[in-house]
Design a protein that fits this description.
Length: about 200
């Protein structure tokens, strides 16, 4: 039976139990690992600007090819120096071919998708590797009814290059790549220049 004279002891015991429980709970909250904000700490974004120009002889024709495009990308940070993710591109190409007498032209809109990886070995420099599929328009070099014969094809590119980043949360970057899968007989040059902006790279 509960007696009134025991009430102070029960009250003190309850207060002590509450204090110990509350202290343990507060301590567990303090020692709990901080939550990682995935989008702020583990992912970076970028937008590239592609520019290319080539002048060469192709199938007996003097060729001049100019390309310009954009390429959004995003990457997951595995650690402070290694990241990887998807990249897509949309490019506009205009080409002019001449046999010395007549000039032939074609324009095309090309697109691609792929995966890239980066190694940031200093605050301002990085290695860039990429494997992508591109859907492009190309010419066989043949002329039919005073027009260049063109076709569309998927082709693979395998890039490895070196880049410079200005550093900081929002930065500009420039980098140069070499395409190891470029056809030696193609009128395209295997060296690709890119520039862009990154956020939290």
């Amino acid at each position: 039976m509960l007696h009134f004279k025991n009430f102070p002891n029960l009250l003190i015991s309850a207060l002590l139990l509450f204090a110990i429980t509350n202290s343990s709970f507060a301590q567990s909250k303090r020692t709990k690992k901080p939550q990682i904000d995935f989008w702020k700490e583990k992912v970076w974004f970028g937008g590239g600007f592609n520019l290319g120009f080539n002048s060469s002889i192709y199938n007996g024709l003097q060729s001049n090819v100019f390309g310009i495009g954009v390429s959004p990308m995003a990457a997951y940070k595995f650690n402070k120096w290694l990241s990887a993710g998807p990249r897509v591109s949309i490019d506009f190409t205009t080409a002019k071919f001449s046999d010395g007498f007549d000039t032939y032209r074609y324009n095309s809109v090309d697109y691609g998708m792929g995966l890239f990886g980066r190694i940031k070995f200093s605050e301002n420099f990085f290695l860039h590797g990429e494997y992508s599929f591109l859907n492009e328009t190309y010419t066989t070099g043949e002329v039919n009814n005073d027009k260049l014969v063109t076709q569309r094809e998927w082709r693979d590119i395998l890039l490895l290059g070196l880049g410079y980043s200005s550093g900081g949360e929002v930065a500009y970057e420039i980098y140069i790549n070499y395409d190891f899968l470029e056809d030696p007989e193609s009128f395209r040059v295997p060296i690709i220049y890119r520039a862009g902006i990154t956020f939290k790279f």
